[in-house]
Amino acid sequence: MNRKELNPDSSPQAAFGARLRTSREARGWKQEDLAEQMGYSSTHISAVETGRKMPTLRFSRSADVVFGTGETADTFERQWREIRHGSLLEGFPEYVGHEGRAVEIRLYEIGIIPGLLQTEEYARVLASSAVRRGSITPDQADARVSFLADRQAALARSRPPMMLVVMDESCVRRQVGGPDVMGAQLERLVEYAEHPNIVVQVAPFEMGERRPFDLPVNLLTLPDRSVVAYAESQAQGHLDRESTTVLPMLTAYHQLQAEALSQVASVAMINQVRKGTP
Question: How many CB atoms lie within 10 A of CB 109?
Fold first, then answer.
């Protein structure tokens, strides 16, 4: 891709690459010079400059060090976060910040496996579907999958949070990505259920009107024992810290857990569905 083909207005990723190249050329550096200072190959620098490769957090911070922009209001890291958050609903980036330090995570999902338990292949199928519908770009789809991997990695800490997951039965019965992808995803759920800090339950269809939630719900208990809630509609997300609304949701979640299948029965159902996958 030559200079004429690179349009910084085409996407946040292209703008990042154009800025990197402009900053490099303003100092009279070749790509090899910048690569040596940043600890990357010149091929990698070229790919980021032309928008063919997504920058990473490490790459962005390295650029800020090399170009002296780390203490400014317009850092490369800020641009990277705009790329990562460009396809996310309002309120979700803030929620993820709390998620990374929560001591307890309670999730309820309808229709799809909760993100924190998704395999990369399952997540990529969902992102690719959104691209085909025209709701996000291919670059944003890649960012979503990468962002999810970062969220999952953030929970693999020395003292991981307790994670309580209730999934509507539709999550395990709705096939996503074909038998191979879905089979691997269900197997991953069974593996997660073996972790001492993770409880996996299925809310069966027969719960009917006893199901207290009609939308996905995320509840986080933070280190100070305060609880925040996050819920999404199709168009936007909302983070709530008010105890008058959050505590009733916590009560409803306890009711949901009581009505859902036990973990043993839930794993049995998941295995039954998994074995029925060709």
Answer: 22
- pLDDT average, residue stretch 19-32: 94
Give the model confidence (pLDDT) of 225-241 as tens digits: 999 999 876 556 778 88
Assess contact for 240 and 207: CB atoms under 8 A: no
First to last CA, the chain: 43
Residue 229's DSSP bridge partners are 219, 240
Distance separating alpha carbons of residues 38 and 20, to the nearest angstrom: 12
pTM of the model as a whole: 0.69
How big is the chain, counted in residues? 278
Any long-range contacts for 15-23 (C-beta under 8 Å, 24+ apart)? 15/79, 16/48, 16/51, 16/55, 16/76, 16/79, 16/80, 16/83, 17/48, 17/49, 17/50, 17/51, 18/49, 19/76, 19/79, 20/45, 20/48, 20/49, 20/55, 20/63, 20/76, 21/49, 23/63, 23/67
What are the residues facing 163 on neighbouring strands? 105, 198
DSSP annotation string for 77-142: HHHHHHHHHTTSPTTHHHHHHHHTT-SEEEEEESSS--GGG--HHHHHHHHHHHHHTTSS-HHHHH
Average predicted confidence (pLDDT) for the chain: 88
Tell me the domains of the chain and their CATH numbers.
Answer: 3-85 (1.10.260.40), 92-114+158-275 (3.30.870.10)
- The alpha carbon of 104 is separated from its chain's Cα centroid by a whole number of angstroms, namely 18
Which residues, in sequence order, are bridge partners of residue 230? 218, 239
Q: What is the rounded average pLDDT of the residues 139-167?
A: 87
119-131 per-position pLDDT tens digit: 999 999 999 999 9
